[in-house]
Write a structure and sequence with these properties.
The model has no long low-confidence stretch (mean pLDDT about 95). The two termini are about 20 Å apart. The chain is about 20% helix and about 40% strand. The strands form two sheets. Strands 5, 6, 7, 8 and 9 form a five-stranded mixed β-sheet that branches. A four-stranded mixed β-sheet has the order 1-4-3-2. It is globular and about 45 Å long. It has three helices and nine strands. By secondary structure, it is α+β, with helices and mostly antiparallel strands. This is VOC family protein. It comes from Streptomyces silvisoli.
């Protein structure tokens, strides 16, 4: 069996990124291990997630720093699935998450675009399909 294990989000600072993902989005901090010269292996995931997680990687070069907040050229790059859209949308708004739009219904589910603390675009989505994948 194979599965997607981690995706990387390049961040400016480990601790501010951990605080946002844990305290604002409600993710769990799965690992925070020092590795070398100020680098850390920092993994967060939505509470209860069983497969994919997010590796928070601190930018260490000018090229990486330039990508913080715009890793996908302005497109939505990550999709946070939920089984209760209204609950999570309201919780995230109350925690200060910046949504770009009101929730909308699409053929694949209910969705609203939000930005993380650096400006990366995410979808909060409640898929219509029970497997959580878009058509």
């Amino acid at each position: 069996m194979t599965c997607l294990g981690l995706v990387t989000v390049v961040v400016r600072d480990y601790d501010e990124a951990i605080a946002f993902y844990r305290d604002v989005l409600g993710f769990e901090l799965l690992e925070d291990t020092p590795i070398e010269e100020g680098k850390r292996w920092v993994v967060v995931a939505p509470s209860g997630a069983r497969e994919a997680a997010v590796l928070l990687a601190r930018a260490v070069t000018g090229e990486q720093e330039a990508r913080v907040g715009d890793q996908t050229g302005g497109r939505v790059g990550w999709f946070l699935n939920t089984d209760a859209f209204e609950r999570d949308y309201e919780r995230m708004r109350a925690a200060g998450v910046s949504f770009e739009e009101a929730p909308r219904r699409e053929p694949y589910g209910t969705v609203a675009v939000f930005r993380d603390l650096y400006g990366n675009r995410w979808d909060l989505i409640q898929p219509n399909r029970t497997d959580g994948l878009s058509p």
